[in-house]
Design a protein that fits this description.
The complex is a heterotrimer of chains A (97), B (473) and C (370). Chain B is an alpha/beta fold. In chain B, 37% of the residues lie in helices and 22% in strands. Chain B is built from 18 helices and 23 strands. In chain B, strands 1, 2, 3, 4, 5, 6 and 20 form a 7-stranded mixed sheet that branches. A 5-stranded parallel sheet of chain B has the order 8-16-10-11-12. The radius of gyration of chain B is 22 Å and the shape is globular. Chain B starts with 9 loop residues before the first strand and ends in a 6-residue tail after the last helix. In chain C, the strands form 4 sheets. In chain C, strands 4, 5, 6, 13, 14, 15, 16, 17, 18, 19 and 20 form an 11-stranded mixed sheet that branches. Chain C has a 6-stranded mixed sheet with strand order 8-2-1-12-22-21, sandwiched between helices. The model of chain C has no long low-confidence stretch (mean pLDDT 96). Chain C is of the alpha+beta class and 370 residues long. Chain C contains 10 helices and 22 strands. Chain C has 2 domains: 5-64 and 147-215 and 310-369, FAD/NAD(P)-binding domain, CATH 3.50.50.60; 86-140 and 217-307, D-Amino Acid Oxidase, Chain A, domain 2. The N and C termini of chain C lie far apart (43 Å). The chains are: A mainly beta (97), B alpha/beta (473), C alpha+beta (370). Chains A and B meet through strand 1, helix 1 and strand 5 of A and strand 8, helix 4 and strand 9 of B. Strand 23 of chain B pairs antiparallel with strand 19 (296-302) of chain C.
Chain lengths: 97, 473, 370
């Protein structure tokens, strides 16, 4: 759980697993998911256990999400944009999504 | 602007990383009139230490502090220098011929540079404890990035655990931002203080001392501090619910927690340099692999230099100077002495000041053995979910090094490419075999050092000879 | 205690030869300059394939395939071998006609393992294949194994039968006196009556030292692997018209290879990747497997191996030196031949002959009449 501080920027609407989420301009996808209250952002392909962003700097690959149908993207490096469709990944992601 | 086609085929200088060292290097070379491109996978300049310094919503300067805002000046100088900055550009390959593979704006391409400065900085040392993969467990650096870039402050019962300057800095910043810290569990070895004293003199006269002590004192007044922590685990089912720990040889304690933030120092981010073939050696003081460099950051590969924390941990101020030196060397190599160069001696003076203090900090915050070399079911490789015991068992049946371990266990074969387990694996194998980490070495790294979309690679512009199809039955 | 036989090279062929020699009662030492499976044997695509073999290799390949299907009996490990077939697809009628002619040739030689299939059956076997593909050759009982695990299994089994492995030991020179070979290494001298040269990319140096130089080219075939994808593919897929070897592992990752080459630097165990050629490899996959268009490449690498000008190996006795046998130059498709070729080498060494037709692999084929 995170709280927002600082000046409020313009809001950006994205969808996360089909649900409307309001992010702040300048957020990365991973930041937006955490700010929206998601505890975990994927389950692993090996054991299916839940994971969440860990390093926020492109190193750990825990924040992998599907963005606009392209899977395994690093959520912590990609800024949100209006209308972006984010899907969390459960285990091995679905091919060709 | 942000399309891969906006990049040229050739640059005089390519700088990889837009943190303190990269920005400083690029400023020097671009100001001297060399065509310069800075490639960085983050969405804004500043690297990690000055992350989002041009865009942060945290405008109250007391929160992130003067050292953070100092970055603004460096970024502005860079922006005025005429260097091209490719934001969100992920470099996935660097060859000995200085050919760079980069993904940018949804496309991939190769480009060439006469000089390359690798300024890929540091990453946090792995902190493999039981439960460190649970949601709610995060690195201190990760939490700090959320604060800088998005103005997000962790809430609920937040526990910080570990050691090192960044932990104290973030604690201070979090408190300044109005956050609350439930407790700090200090894992630094008490013996570290005694050992560090012999390096104390240079430290006392260094810029670290006053700032550091003041900051720690401020945090200690406001947060419950538990020292001498010798074991640590995150407990919970699908998220962290508690921190389980021991102080010294006392019995186990359990503390309810909603977030656990871990940190035990930073180490060079070696992936690109190693994959390019730069020779590295084990640094027994900093307990990590560092590149073999000349006094300007030059590597054994013609035209390739490393600047900043990727050259060995020394901090942001030193990184700026090391970036300048790499920039100066590039300009001299390509243009001779043009006069339009910053003062080399000034940079070296600043560096000496920080170098002198480093031994004290390295010794003081040397992460304890138990937090570097895990045991039992503790996950070592987060990607492939390989445990310490599996590593030990495989070493005992004849797996002699990290590269064989990849084949035996897939350890280090996931998307992070060993960044989260490389040092742990080296030290774990070394200890199990009773040899030094230097003898074990690191994973053999290869490009792509960042994943590349198959579609991007498939549509990469090709040279004529490659278009000729290979026909065979 | 000197061994009877020294095998030079700890790849699959060296380990398999050592194992089979030990099974025949020989005392064997294997000398490897790095570690077992360090190069091509440990990092290849793992294809266990008769499909598309040079006709000279078919008998040996067919014999090896039978051994792969019982591989556990040989080395006490299944080597990750799975038999979901190998498929070579045609993208148009012209390619299909070439495949048909190939199957006719193989059938005429009396072999039945290659079958031509049409578009419908191709889609049943490879549902993810692009719509434009019109047919294929299939070898239904071909398959794939895990290379590193395989080499390790052969090594372990050989060791259990008394083979001595000297890893991290480099051969510097060979001398023969009084019917005994002295093998000089960087760790001292070893002696044996027989030498088997299984040194892969480095085998040409040994042949040269024996006065029978070969036109061996050191190559670095490249491979890429993706992050995990849901299961969509069982057989290994190749292409009639393009360079491709394509398969999905049980963990969901997808291996892309087929023989595009990087640059090998055998002196320092190093390879450089050629991204422009890997891009062609990626384009092939993009075209043939639409599901792969969102895949991410997470790693790429190349092994170092030997290729002969005619793309078939050198197998058999030395033409210049008594007590020396060669097995090298497998030209990027030696993995499947490993089990049977080791058995063949052991037979050659211990009995001096074999029923396998090995004449096409004779080292003398490169010795032009001067």
């Amino acid at each position: 759980m995170f709280q927002r501080v600082g000046k409020s920027e313009a809001s950006v609407i994205i969808s996360v697993d089909g649900t409307r989420v309001t992010a702040r301009a300048g957020d990365t996808v991973a930041a937006a998911l955490l700010a929206a209250g998601l505890t975990s952002t994927r389950t692993t392909p090996i054991s299916g256990t839940p994971r969440a962003p860990y390093c926020m700097m492109g190193v750990c690959f825990e924040c992998l999400v599907t963005i606009d149908d392209v899977g395994n993207r690093q959520g912590c490096l990609i800024p949100v944009s209006e209308g972006m469709r984010v899907d969390t990944q459960k285990g091995k992601r679905e091919a060709g999504r | 602007m942000s399309a891969v086609t906006s990049l040229d085929d050739h640059y005089d200088v390519a700088v990889i990383g837009a943190g303190p060292a990269g920005l400083a290097a690029a400023t020097v070379t671009a100001t001297a009139g060399l065509s310069t491109v800075v490639l960085d996978d983050n969405p804004a300049p500043g690297g990690q230490v000055w992350r989002a310094v041009t865009t942060t919503p945290v405008q109250d300067r007391r929160v992130l502090g003067d050292d953070y805002w100092k970055g603004q000046e460096i970024v502005q100088a860079f922006q005025a220098s005429g260097a091209k900055h490719a934001l969100g550009a992920a470099v996935w390959s660097l060859s000995r011929e200085r050919e760079i593979g980069v993904s940018f704006g949804g496309g991939a391409r190769m480009l060439e540079a006469r000089r390359v400065v690798i300024a890929s900085g540091a990453l946090e040392r792995p902190f493999p404890i039981p439960g460190w993969t649970l949601p709610g467990v995060m690195s201190v650096g990760g939490a700090q990035t959320l604060l800088k870039a998005s103005g997000l402050v962790p809430g609920g019962r937040v526990v910080l655990a570990g050691a090192g300057p960044l932990l104290w800095l973030f604690a201070h910043q979090m408190l300044q931002a109005g956050g609350q810290i439930h407790a700090i569990l200090d894992t630094s070895d008490r013996a570290g203080w005694r050992a560090a004293l012999k390096h104390a003199m240079p430290f006392v006269t260094s810029p670290y001392l006053v700032k550091g002590l003041k900051l720690m004192a401020g945090v200690r007044r406001r947060v419950r501090l538990l020292t001498g922590v010798t074991s640590l685990a995150a407990g919970g089912r699908n998220k962290v619910e508690a921190v389980i720990f021991r102080q010294g040889s006392e019995g186990g304690q359990r503390m309810a927690a909603d977030m656990l933030l871990l940190h035990q120092g930073v180490v060079p981010n070696v992936n690109l340099a190693m994959a390019a073939g730069v020779e590295h050696h084990w640094d027994a003081q900093q307990l990590c692999f560092v590149p073999v460099l000349d006094t300007f950051g030059g590597t054994g590969i013609e035209g390739v230099a490393i600047a900043g924390d990727g050259a060995g941990i020394a901090g942001a101020e030193a990184a700026v100077e090391r970036g300048r030196l790499a920039g100066i060397a590039a300009v001299r190599a390509l243009k001779g002495d043009t006069g339009k160069l910053p003062d080399e001696t000034a940079s070296r003076k600043v560096l000496a000041k920080y170098d002198g203090a480093r031994a004290f900090l390295d010794t003081l915050y040397r992460p304890s053995r138990g937090f570097r070399i895990p045991a039992g079911d503790t996950i070592v490789c987060r990607c492939e979910e390989v445990t310490a015991q599996q590593v030990i068992d495989n070493v005992r049946i004849g797996c002699t090094g990290p590269n064989q371990l990849k084949s035996f266990l897939r350890c280090g074969m996931g998307p992070c490419q060993g960044r989260m387990c490389g040092l742990t694996v080296t030290e774990l194998i070394a200890e199990t075999r009773g040899v030094t980490p230097a003898e074990i070495g690191y994973y053999r790294l290869r490009p792509p050092v960042k994943p590349i979309a198959l579609a991007e690679l498939a549509s990469m512009p090709k040279t004529e000879s490659d278009v000729t199809a290979v026909v065979r039955i | 205690m000197s061994p009877d036989v020294i095998v030079i090279g700890g790849g699959l062929h060296g380990c398999s030869t050592a194992l089979h020699l030990a099974m025949r009662g020989s005392k064997v030492m294997l000398i490897e300059k790095d570690h077992v499976g360090r190069h091509a044997s440990g990092v290849n695509a793992g294809g266990v394939r008769r499909l598309g073999r040079h006709v000279a290799e078919i008998p040996l390949s067919v014999a090896s395939m039978e051994m792969w299907h019982r591989i556990r009996d040989l080395v006490d490990d299944d080597c990750g071998f799975e038999s979901h077939g190998q498929v070579k697809v045609a993208e148009d009628e012209a390619e299909l006609a070439r495949l048909r002619a190939r199957v006719d040739d193989v059938t005429a030689l009396g072999f039945a393992h290659e079958e031509l299939i049409g578009q419908q059956e191709l889609r049943e076997i490879v549902p993810a294949i692009a719509d434009h593909c019109v047919g294929a050759i299939v070898c239904r009982t071909d398959g794939a194994a895990l290379p590193y695990r395989t080499v390790q299994a052969f090594k372990r089994k050989a060791e259990s039968l008394g083979v001595v492995f000297k890893e991290g030991t480099r051969v510097l020179g060979l001398q023969r006196a009084d019917g005994v070979w002295r093998v000089e290494t960087d760790k001292g001298v070893e002696t044996a009556t027989v030498i088997v040269n299984c040194a892969g990319a480095w085998a040409g140096r040994i042949a040269e030292a024996l006065g029978e130089p070969v036109p061996l080219e050191v190559i670095a075939p490249m491979l890429m692997i993706t992050g995990p994808m849901p299961a969509f593919l069982q057989p290994v897929v190749g292409s009639a018209g393009r360079t491709l070897s394509f398969k999905q592992f049980a963990n969901g990752t997808v291996l892309i290879g087929g023989g595009h080459r990087g640059t090998a630097h055998p002196d320092d165990n190093r390879t450089d990747l050629d991204w422009e050629r890997l891009a062609i490899n990626a384009k092939t996959v993009y075209d043939l497997f639409p599901v792969m268009r969102t895949a991410q490449i997470v790693r790429a690498w190349a092994g170092i191996e030997a290729r002969m000008p005619d793309d078939i190996p050198v197998i058999g006795p030395s033409s210049t030196s008594e007590g020396v046998f060669h097995a090298f130059g497998f030209s990027a498709h030696g993995f499947q031949l490993g089990p049977a070729c080791g058995a063949l080498m052991a037979e050659l060494v211990t009995t001096g002959r074999s029923n396998m037709p090995i004449a096409p692999f004779d080292i003398r084929r490169f010795q032009t009449a001067a």
